[in-house]
Amino acid sequence: AFLELSGTSEIKGVWKDSVTLPCAYVPVEDLVQQTLTWAVVHDKGSGAIIRRDDSGDQVLLSEYRGRVSIPKDAPGNVSLLILSLEITDRGTYTCQVTWRDSNNSLIAKEITTSLEVVKVAATKPIIRAAEPGLTLPAGASTSLSCEAGGSPPISYRWFRRGPAGTAELLSSGAELAWPSLRPSDSGTYFCEAHNR
């Protein structure tokens, strides 16, 4: 029986986002998975993060508690999911699996993945209007909301375009709302998104 772990040698994760470090094998008859360990080496030292054996899954490094898991119901998929990435999570991760064969001997394999954690610039903001069409009667209420992607936190600012290319700052929230529109509210509005 021939067993190989497959994964990827390097992966980029986004700060505060989640990432999956792939590790998988094709199950082979007569070979039973005994233990699975994900270990890490990074700036703060090294150690086993999570271990799976007959008694279940155990998270061994406290900084990963509540943030890591391995699929439960996919035989052969032993990938590591890490939630809400921190910059300090960058490092080299090793997936180690041991199997027992029908003669009771152990076979062990491991693969290594390096994880880089990046901060992503805010994308160009998208403006969504509360109503379709932007011609509204005086006295109506409406709103515009602004959305952008990237590493959180993202902050927003709304401006109104003035004469000769000037801009007036209106508010610093994702939404711009008018409880009761006046004719003088007609104009061109734009939104700016930025993060750290």
UniProtKB/TrEMBL annotation:
Highest taxon above the source species: Eukaryota
Molecular function via GO: complement component C3b binding
InterPro entries: Ig-like_dom, Ig-like_dom_sf, Ig-like_fold, Ig_sub, Ig_V-set, VSIG4
Sequence ranges assigned to domain Ig-like in this UniProt record: 17-112, 125-196
GO biological process, one term: negative regulation of interleukin-2 production
Protein name according to UniProt: VSIG4 protein
